[in-house]
UniProtKB/TrEMBL annotation:
Enzyme class: transferase
Composition skew (Acidic residues), residue ranges: 8-18
Active site: 575
This protein's record includes keyword DNA-binding: yes
Name listed for the protein in its UniProt record: DNA (cytosine-5-)-methyltransferase
One GO location term (cellular component): nucleus
Similarity field: Belongs to the class I-like SAM-binding methyltransferase superfamily. C5-methyltransferase family.
InterPro entries noted in UniProt: C5-Methyltransferase, C5_MeTfrase, SAM-dependent_MTases_sf, SAM_MeTfrase_DRM, UBA
Alphabetical GO biological process terms: methylation
UBA domain: residues covered: 47-88, 96-137, 172-215
């Protein structure tokens, strides 16, 4: 991050610098004529006496200017020559004033390009206006240059990195920035440029990504699978965004990242088999569930939608070939969260958790309405991350906005909105933005107030746990079909439980939980779930384990013999190696963390095999 000097640090103009702006005549004819007593070669042919030329030189006129005046006036009348020289000087001073202003502003530390832009907009007569404009330009640049430093600080002022568990749905303040972001997300430059042109300058990065996805879809929504001839191959370049790119010839697919024959496309809009209050709700799956995958036991698997190429094809192939249901939680609450779900649940007669959550930022946080500027048109937040914008960033925004009495210039508006979208900041006062508090994230994600608060849990851990959780209302809508199926209660095997999003959803649906076996590696998250279980007076049994890799097939069988068959296996394995925000180890399902998906598959198959044996 480039540090910009404050007013107190800048030596705006010393006396020497001001003096250097004014021209001083040479103290000797030697400057223009060479050695004293000789006449410049430029004036020799004019046949004007050396005495006359020297007198003009002493008056401060250059030899070139004198020669031009003599040639113009006919070489003889010294008074006419002098008058002409005076006209030249006046004209020269007028034409040089702009140059002096430029030098003056550059000397104050502003970049030359910005200085020229300011002069073009405001002219060269009012330096005060130009200076104010330049300060606005500089502040806007500062706001756009905070990408690498504005991350959350934990309780001990130690830094933790940008979430590796969230898709990179950041919006840019101008077209060049958005193009760079799309290229960083591994979209081809040409496709990104076309999408930018078609979507317009006001489109968010998420909307542009959706446009690219839609443009690349080769089939309608219900045709997710594409079969290729064995000779037809696709590019495995690491520089490509894999989940939605059209097949290309000339290279074989990466077997670690993609199924040899199938790619799964993302729908637009991302409404799965239907969402509340939107048209197009389905009652039957476009592709039926295979017979060997029908429940019970039911299963429900979740992960980020925008995974690398071939990941969802591989996930589907490991989970009985079931087609994913891609849903954006912005249709359920005031924040986006694009996820894919593979499950064998019925989809008919779903219903929403009551009361439904607020659908806009302003409804969720009405105190913001008073301060929300007319030029910030957001009604939804972006995907909630595991980190937040820094206090330094919010202060920088306040400082730049306070320099303007009314609405700030368009470039400042764009820079501020970019940062607000990136870090999900809301307006809490005049010219004041702030990141979401943990309790506000709990509300957006559908958790009870203070669900993650207290018990030795740090502020940093709260943000991290919430950023990696389910959106309860979305998951609850899918699980609602279980209520009539299990009126006496349900046995749940909860893998990668996190802070208990599945358990909260079942409780909100008023589905009794007879047994929950929770597997979660984070002690912080396990304590949060235990606290929820006690505070809500759950009458069932909660058993917790730390690591899915230690949940052997024998232990699973023993648990089922003790408690009975599991009715639901639910969870979402880590997406560290899948998320767009991870630029270093985005290695797909073969990555260190995301490979735990195969543990989900192992455990699910063991549960279904044992359940089949128990039914005999």
């Amino acid at each position: 991050m480039v540090e910009h000097s404050t007013d107190d640090e800048v030596d705006w103009n010393t006396d020497d610098e001001i003096d250097n702006l004014h021209w001083s005549p040479p103290s000797s004819p030697e400057t223009s004529l060479g050695p004293a007593g000789t006449t410049s070669p430029n004036l020799t042919h004019m046949r004007i006496s050396d005495e006359t030329v020297a007198r003009f030189i002493e008056m401060g006129f250059s030899s070139d200017m004198i020669a031009r005046a003599i040639d113009e006036t006919g070489r003889s009348n010294s008074e006419l020559i002098l008058e002409t020289l005076c006209k030249y000087t006046t004209s020269s001073e007028a034409s040089s004033s702009k140059s002096k202003v430029i030098d003056h502003l550059i000397g104050m530390g502003f970049h030359e390009e910005l200085v020229l832009k300011a002069i073009q907009e405001y002219g060269d007569e009012n330096i005060e206006e130009e200076t104010n404009a330049l300060l606005s330009y500089t502040e806007a640049e500062k706001l756009c240059e905070t990408d690498d430093e504005d991350i959350n600080m934990n309780d001990d002022d130690n830094l933790f990195s940008l979430s590796s568990d969230e898709e990179d749905e950041l919006n840019s303040c101008d077209e060049d920035k958005r193009l760079k972001d799309l290229i960083k997300m591994d979209f081809p430059r040409q496709e990104a440029a076309i999408a930018l042109e078609r979507c317009g300058e006001n489109a968010s990065l998420g909307e542009i990504v959706d446009f690219i996805c839609a443009a690349q879809m080769a089939r309608e929504f219900d045709e997710f699978f594409e079969v290729h001839d064995e000779k037809e191959t696709i590019s495995n370049s690491k520089k490509r965004r894999a989940f939605n790119e059209l097949p290309r010839s000339g290279r074989k697919p990466n077997s670690a990242m993609a199924n040899d024959h199938e790619l799964i496309r993302l729908p637009n809009p991302m409404i799965g088999f239907g969402v509340p209050n939107e048209p197009g709700i389905m009652t039957h799956r476009p592709v039926p569930i295979p017979d060997d995958a029908r429940g019970p036991p039911y299963f429900y698997y979740e992960n980020i939608a925008m995974a690398p190429k071939g990941v969802w094809s591989k996930i589907s192939s490991q989970l009985y070939g079931i087609m994913p249901e891609f849903v954006d939680s912005k249709f359920f609450c005031a924040a986006a969260r694009k996820r894919g779900y593979i499950h064998n649940l019925p989809i008919k007669d779903r219903f929403q958790i009551q009361p439904p959550p607020h659908s806009t930022i302003q409804e969720a946080f009405p105190f913001t309405v008073r301060w929300w500027p007319s030029w910030d048109l957001r009604t939804k937040l972006n995907c909630l991350l595991t980190c937040i914008g820094s206090a330094q960033l919010t202060n920088r925004i306040r400082v730049v906005l306070e320099k303007h009495d009314g609405e700030p210039p368009l470039n400042v508006q764009k820079a501020v909105i970019y940062q607000c979208k990136k870090w999900n900041m809301i307006w809490v006062g005049e010219n004041r933005v702030a990141p979401l508090e943990a309790v506000e994230m709990e509300e957006l994600l559908g958790f009870p107030r203070d669900h993650t608060r207290g018990g030795g849990i740090s502020r940093t851990d709260r943000y991290k746990s919430l950023g990696n959780s389910f959106q309860v209302d979305t998951v609850g809508y899918h699980l609602s079909v279980l209520k009539p199926l299990f009126p006496k209660g349900i046995n749940v095997l909860s893998l990668f439980s996190g802070i208990g999003g599945a358990e909260v959803a079942l409780r909100n649906l008023q589905i009794p939980m007879n047994v929950v076996v929770s597997v979660e590696i984070s002690e912080v998250n396990r304590n949060i779930l235990k606290n929820f279980w006690r505070q809500t007076d759950q009458r069932g049994t909660l058993r917790d384990f730390g690591d899915v890799r230690e949940l052997s097939n024998r232990i699973i069988e023993q648990l089922m013999e003790e408690y009975g068959a599991f009715d639901l296996v639910i969870g979402g394995s880590p997406c560290n190696n899948l998320a767009g925000g991870n630029r270093h180890t985005r290695s797909g399902l073969e990555g260190e963390h995301s490979s735990l998906f195969y543990e989900y598959c192992r455990i699910l198959k063991t549960v279904r095999r044992k359940a089949s044996e128990m039914r005999r």
